[in-house]
Design brief:
alpha/beta; two-stranded antiparallel ribbon; about 50% helix
């Protein structure tokens, strides 16, 4: 609908400064109030079936019954509106529902700030500074607590029957338990779907990881419908390969190259990280296992004098590094690419780094889930996935889903 220019000019007749438009008593807030109240009156007219003061309403059994005041919060600040009532109290407004005190989208703004790692007090201060809206800590907590039910539903949702590749990663998060702060691991499983899209399969927390813990996680995913994984990319966590073998005996377990590179660079000064990373790339991008061994020897000759721990790390984990050399380049590239894990790690660490410690496990899961939800909106299909999928169909023909063949 095109706005009447003469009407706009008339509305802006007294405009002198920005506050006249967007200030506490500015034109936008006045217009918001007027339009909402006019719309609510129109809703009541539809509900009653006759216009205000119309003779049709005489002895109709219901009529208008004044208004009640309501305070609404939104991006524009706070505005007080008058909500019309009927004598039978049967009118249910749709634009501003009964009990509603915030405009649609305001809760999303709170969740967005929370997902970025802001504390309740920081969100409270931000909303007051930016929108001149006073929001209680209890309201913020209620909005974010509502996410827990969403997290529980997401954590128990059905999974696809097959994820060709699954990555598993962990972050250490400080949480308060029994009156004291302790480090707990939060584990994230990322699956690559048959369509080549990344999908977070779940979040799990544990104080003690091991074969028993991983067996429970994998059994849970199996019960949610995940029947087969072609390649499980792990970071060498204790007990995980044995747990995979128990639940998914046909799965190839591959030590995550992203974690190997990251662990290696922990030993390196910032100035040397780029050349060291480049030389490590020659190892995992080698054409064959024999070529990779030769590149590792050359790497050791080049860097052992300064960083002997790196070559020792790779030799110690060599049997976990080399399984993907049996696959063609299309599959290898997707296995060793760091994007799926690194982008996720960066977003999660950014969300949790501002917290000294989370008051509970639920509080940590809320922040991480919201951060993941925001991150997933930006994910695209894995590069070269069609070629890799064709290889999967040949290498694992008997296990490949028929509908994708």
């Amino acid at each position: 609908m095109e706005m009447d220019k003469e009407l706009i000019d008339k509305l802006l007749g007294d405009y002198r400064k920005p506050e006249d438009l967007v200030g506490e008593n500015g034109l936008l807030k006045q217009l918001t109030k007027a339009v909402i109240e006019r719309a609510l009156q129109a809703e009541l007219t539809t509900h009653l079936g006759y216009e205000k003061h119309s003779l049709e309403g005489h002895l109709s059994g219901n009529s208008r019954n004044g208004v009640s005041a309501k305070q609404l919060k939104g991006d524009f600040g706070e505005v007080q509106i008058e909500v019309p009532r009927d004598r039978q109290a049967s009118f249910e407004p749709r634009l501003v529902a009964k009990g509603q005190t915030r405009f649609a989208g305001f809760d999303d703004k709170i969740l967005s700030l929370y997902a970025r790692g802001m504390t309740t007090r920081e969100i409270q201060g931000h909303l007051e500074e930016m929108y001149q809206v006073e929001v209680s800590p209890a309201l913020i907590s209620n909005v974010t607590d509502a996410v827990i039910e969403e997290v529980k539903a997401w954590q128990t949702r059905p999974l696809d029957a097959v994820y060709p590749i699954v990555y598993l990663d962990a972050l250490v998060v400080k949480m308060r338990s029994d009156g004291r702060v302790e480090n707990r691991a939060v584990y994230v499983a990322i699956g690559i779907t048959l369509a080549g899209m990344k999908e977070v399969l779940g979040l799990w927390t544990s104080g003690n990881e091991g074969a028993k813990f991983w067996l429970a996680v994998l059994t849970e995913m199996q019960n949610r419908g995940l029947k087969d994984i072609f390649i499980a990319c792990v970071d060498g966590l204790k007990g995980f390969p044995q747990a995979i073998e128990t639940v998914y005996p046909k799965t190839t377990v591959q030590l995550c190259i992203a974690h190997m590179v990251r662990a290696s660079l922990n030993y390196v000064s910032w100035k040397q990280r780029k050349p060291v990373a480049q030389d490590l790339k020659s190892i995992y991008r080698a054409a064959t296992v024999e070529e990779a061994e030769r590149q590792l020897a050359e790497f050791a000759a080049q860097w052992d004098r300064r960083y002997p721990s790196i070559s020792a790390l790779w030799r110690r984990n060599w049997q976990g590094v080399i399984p993907f050399f049996q696959f063609p380049p299309e599959i290898r590239k997707i296995v060793y690419t760091t994007n799926a894990i690194e982008s996720l790690n960066m977003s999660l660490r950014k969300a949790i780094k501002t917290r000294g410690a989370f008051p509970s496990e639920d509080a940590a899961l809320k922040v991480m889930y919201l951060a993941l939800r925001n991150l997933a909106k930006k994910w695209n299909a894995a590069q070269g996935w069609k070629e890799a999928l064709n290889r999967f169909a040949l290498v694992w023909e008997a296990r490949f889903p028929h509908q994708c063949a």
